[in-house]
Design goal:
By secondary structure, this protein is mostly helical. The protein has one domain. It is built from five helices and no strands. Helix 1 crosses helix 5. The chain is elongated, with a radius of gyration of 19 Å. The protein starts with a helix and ends in a 31-residue tail after the last helix. The model has no long low-confidence stretch (mean pLDDT 84).
């Protein structure tokens, strides 16, 4: 049983870390799109351009959902429906894990949205509720 708990906690932690990495990649792409003049700096300078550092600080204060929405607007012409769906999946999984109740006595994370409507199409009493 302890092995299952450790495996689930480890996978959840890895998922959160990968989603943070994706969030940082989305932020950098937004910043670079808005500041195209600094892209050449990566070929000629060893230091990260100051504007990139400053903008990163601003994006670090935003949550995943806000960055995802900005990214989708900035890259609307490039995103496929599947890419948008993937970003939504990452957001929902990350949100579910981040807001779960964790107990080392359970083999799983416990998550219950604030309102019943967030359960989706599952009905009370169903096996998936």
């Amino acid at each position: 049983m302890e092995e299952d708990i450790n495996k689930n906690l480890s996978r959840s932690g890895l998922y959160i870390m990968y989603s943070i990495w994706i969030q940082n990649q989305l932020s950098d792409l937004i910043i670079l799109k808005r500041n195209k003049e600094i892209i050449e700096d990566f070929n000629t300078k060893k230091l990260i351009p100051e504007i990139l550092r400053q903008e990163r600080f601003i994006f670090w204060e935003k949550d995943f959902k806000e960055i995802k929405e900005i990214f989708e607007k900035e890259f609307l012409d490039y995103l496929t429906p599947q890419a948008s769906a993937d970003l939504n999946t990452i957001y929902y999984f990350r949100n579910g894990i981040a807001h779960s109740t964790v107990s080392v006595g359970r083999k799983y994370l416990l998550y219950k949205p604030k309102t019943e409507k967030n359960f989706g199409k599952h009905k009370k009493g169903s096996k998936h509720y």
